[in-house]
Write a structure and sequence with these properties.
- By secondary structure, the chain is mostly helical.
- It has a single domain, classed as Rossmann fold (3-Layer(aba) Sandwich).
- Helices cover about 25% and strands about 5% of the residues.
- The protein has a three-stranded parallel β-sheet, with helices on both faces.
- Helix 2 packs across helix 9 and helix 4 runs parallel beside helix 6.
């Protein structure tokens, strides 16, 4: 089944007017660092791992006050911006006393958990435990996971495999995708009805050249990550789960290949806006220039712990606007399935190309994007 873009499917959120947007009772997130809005404000990021027992210690400890999101703090991450559009906040679920609606945790994997870095399997279990096993039927749930399982340097420990992308291990990729599908199916069985499921980010050859000049393009690794995303989408469609298959890859590739349209002047991952500081610990005091959060694509770069790759505040805003934007297509009905993602994932839209004339000067809506 040919992978397609999903900008039109944002209309599935029924966000045509702010009044209609309020039909959602909450925004709930299960994900990793791209979506984390402060989990490590209250817990240290993986420290004290015993040699050989789990992946090596990766974290730098807790985030300082005023930080916590994997971006150019105090800028909000996309999840916070997205939640705000519905009148809510994206509060880290481990917030003392109050808890929160954002279970995303930097470093999270699909089923592999270690120390304070919970997999989405564990995040989901904790959410359902907190609600008595009932998922809010009127909330919009984001499920965005898999990248940390799909790297050539992914750590193997216990029953969890390491590198499954190059060489490509199709049985393990298929198993991993089925695990994500099973988690979303469990969430639906608990009552959830509305799902946003972005693909796994992976730059095109041209985008890689723009962000990391001289780096070799990993054809096999990219194919493995794209296979995973398509298996997840196909698996959800096969189970009759209506969802919004947001194509983050095409969005990000478009941005780095057209940075001037967004006021971005630095796209290289060699230098992040936060300098050598990892983004969840970055504050305005760490910015390499006073407006780096607006002119740099990356918040943290290759010189930061773990190699960076998280987005600056301005790109977080763009991404949130993309997820929210109701541009294009008809409005699918996620309850009945009319015009739903089961149809969407079968649709070929390769003839549609970006129109720079309508790439928002107001940064509200993106045009439909062509295939990579």
């Amino acid at each position: 089944m040919k992978r397609v873009l999903a900008l039109f499917a944002i209309a599935a959120l029924t966000l045509i007017t702010p009044a209609r947007a309020q039909k959602f009772s909450n925004t709930v997130f299960f994900s990793a660092s791209d979506t984390d809005t402060g989990w490590y404000l209250y817990k240290p990021f993986q420290v004290g791992a015993a040699p050989g027992s789990l992946p090596p210690a990766l974290g730098n400890g807790k985030a300082p006050a005023g930080a916590g999101t994997f971006t150019t703090n105090p800028d909000p991450g996309w999840a916070q911006i997205f939640a705000n559009k519905f009148g809510y906040a994206a509060i880290a679920a481990d917030t003392p006393v109050t808890g929160g609606n954002n279970w995303a945790i930097g470093g999270a994997r699909v089923v592999a958990s270690y120390f304070n870095t919970w997999s989405t399997e564990k995040q989901l279990a904790a959410y359902l435990a907190s609600t008595g096993g009932i998922a809010d039927p009127n909330a919009i749930f984001t499920y965005w996971i898999g990248l940390n399982d799909l790297q050539t340097n992914t750590s193997a420990f216990g029953p969890y495999p390491g590198n499954i992308v190059n060489p490509q291990n199709v049985p393990q990729i298929t198993k991993l995708a089925s695990q994500e599908v099973s988690q979303i199916a469990a969430l639906r069985a608990a009552g959830a009805r509305y799902f946003l499921v972005p693909d796994i980010k992976d730059p095109s050859p041209a985008a890689l050249a723009a962000t990391n000049p001289g780096a070799a393009y990993d054809v096999v690794g990219a194919a493995s990550r794209n296979l995973y995303s398509q298996l997840v989408w196909d698996g959800l469609a096969a189970q009759g789960i209506n969802f919004i298959p947001a194509d983050v890859n095409s969005l990000r590739n478009f941005i780095v290949l057209n940075p001037a349209l967004f006021g971005i002047t630095v796209t290289s991952i060699a230098t992040g806006a936060c300098g050598n500081v990892i983004s969840y610990q970055c504050t305005a005091a760490n910015l390499v220039t006073p407006n780096a959060n607006k002119t740099y694509y990356y918040a943290d770069g290759l010189t930061s712990p773990f190699g960076g790759g998280h987005l600056s505040g301005t790109v977080q805003q763009i991404q949130a606007d993309y997820f929210y934007s109701p541009r294009g297509g008809s409005e699918p009905d996620l309850v009945s399935g009319r015009g739903s993602s089961q149809d969407a994932v079968r649709r070929d839209r390769s003839h549609q190309k970006p129109d720079p004339a309508v790439v928002w000067p107001d940064k509200r809506c993106l045009p439909w994007l062509g295939e990579r």
